[in-house]
């Protein structure tokens, strides 16, 4: 059985097919993503909603086979590097923690970046490209590599690519790739008042 079949969610309601399709693989194929498709995916992030239309997100990406890709890969934790090296694209999602219009703290910046990331992942899924967001990276290394200004911070990193063969993964990643998706019951996250 293929990982895409194993990862089909058992939902209680009919969801938009792209939401149901989206998951975070670790096995990527060697197929590259065209630059125009990469830009299309980030265009979807561009159109996410944000507080006061501030759009407090920025992205830096690199394609496999470039020095930039290797630099971003080196910023990932040891637990993410073994599988992320097979991705076609690595990226850093950055948050601007202040409003451009008045310099005040934007307490919703991370929320807004999360919305942008969600739209990015759904757009990728629409093209049979899968993304895996990661918190496991060296924050300071990214800040230094990208020479980030004060108030701009890396929130997560991500990998993009076409699905690959789970057999190409080492353990424990192979088992994770072939384990069914689960979520907490709706009743644990939803309350009506």
Question: What's the quick description here?
Answer:
The chain is of the alpha+beta class and about 190 residues long. About 35% of the residues lie in helices and about 15% in strands. A four-stranded antiparallel β-sheet has the order 1-2-4-3, sandwiched between helices.
What does this molecule look like?
- The model has no long low-confidence stretch (mean pLDDT 94).
- This protein has a single domain (27-170), classed as NADH Oxidase (3-Layer(aba) Sandwich).
- Strands 1-2-4-3 form a 4-stranded antiparallel sheet, with helices on both faces.
- It contains 9 helices and 4 strands; from the N terminus they run H-H-H-E-H-H-E-H-E-H-E-H-H.
- It is globular, with a radius of gyration of 17 Å.
- It is α+β, with helices and mostly antiparallel strands.
């Amino acid at each position: 059985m293929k990982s895409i079949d194993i990862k089909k969610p058992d939902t209680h309601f009919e969801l938009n097919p792209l939401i149901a399709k989206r998951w975070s693989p670790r096995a990527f194929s060697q197929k590259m993503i065209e630059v125009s498709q990469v830009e299309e995916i980030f265009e979807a992030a561009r159109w996410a909603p944000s507080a006061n239309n501030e759009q407090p997100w920025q992205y830096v990406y690199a394609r496999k086979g470039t020095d930039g890709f290797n630099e971003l890969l080196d910023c990932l934790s040891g637990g993410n590097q073994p599988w992320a090296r097979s991705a076609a694209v690595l990226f850093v999602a950055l948050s601007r923690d202040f409003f451009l219009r008045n310099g005040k703290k934007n307490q919703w910046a991370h929320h807004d970046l999360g919305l942008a990331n969600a739209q990015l992942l759904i757009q990728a899924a629409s093209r049979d490209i899968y993304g895996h967001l990661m918190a496991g990276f060296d924050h300071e290394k990214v800040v230094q590599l990208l020479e980030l200004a004060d108030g701009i911070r890396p929130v997560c990193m991500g990998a993009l690519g076409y699905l690959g063969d789970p057999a190409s993964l080492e353990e424990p990643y192979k088992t994770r790739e072939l384990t069914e998706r689960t979520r907490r019951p709706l009743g644990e996250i939803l309350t009506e008042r």
